[in-house]
Amino acid sequence: MELKDILSPDSTRVAVEESSKKKILELISQMVAPKLAGVSKADIFDSLLQRERLGSTGIGLGIAIPHGRLENAGQPVAALITLAQPVDFDAIDNQPVDIIFALLVPKDNPELHLQTLSAVAAKLNQKDCCRALRHSTSSAELYELITKEYTADSCS
């Protein structure tokens, strides 16, 4: 599965002006709810929040990958945002986060969940890719950068 199969241009936003983890998770819920028939914004937010309560999805180096599984989701969906100002996300390295890739998958497909998380983490583990994402000036550019074919060197 490629990222463009789960992420759409209208699910990417650059330089978002949110100042808390809760507000970011609410925004993500609003962004992806229209793509999941039969799933409410509240269901999405609850799923993301429950996962955060188990432990932060801030993986370090300014990156967070909030994720959740949804009972009534028919397909996986994702959202990608960069923040105008980094926000405390209780990341494992105690550094604030400014790149957030959210993933929501059907509850009955844990294998897809793990495969997609792994692919996203691999892409965001590339320093050149993250640098390019952070320097994006438009949501369209952000989408293009993250959905480019994976290479070992970068996403730029």
TrEMBL record:
UniProt xrefs under InterPro entries: PTrfase/Anion_transptr, PTS_EIIA_type-2_dom, PTS_Nitro_regul, PTS_SugarTrans_NitroReg
Any one biological process term the GO annotation gives: phosphoenolpyruvate-dependent sugar phosphotransferase system
PTS EIIA type-2 domain sequence ranges: 5-149
Alphabetical list of SUPFAM superfamilies matching this protein: Phoshotransferase/anion transport protein
The organism's place on the tree of life at top rank: Bacteria
PROSITE patterns xrefs: PTS_EIIA_TYPE_2, PTS_EIIA_TYPE_2_HIS
CDD domains linked: PTS_IIA_fru
Molecular functions per Gene Ontology: protein kinase activator activity; protein-N(PI)-phosphohistidine-sugar phosphotransferase activity
NCBIfam families: nitro_reg_IIA (TIGR01419)
Name of the protein in question: PTS IIA-like nitrogen-regulatory protein PtsN
Species the sequence originates in: Aliidiomarina iranensis
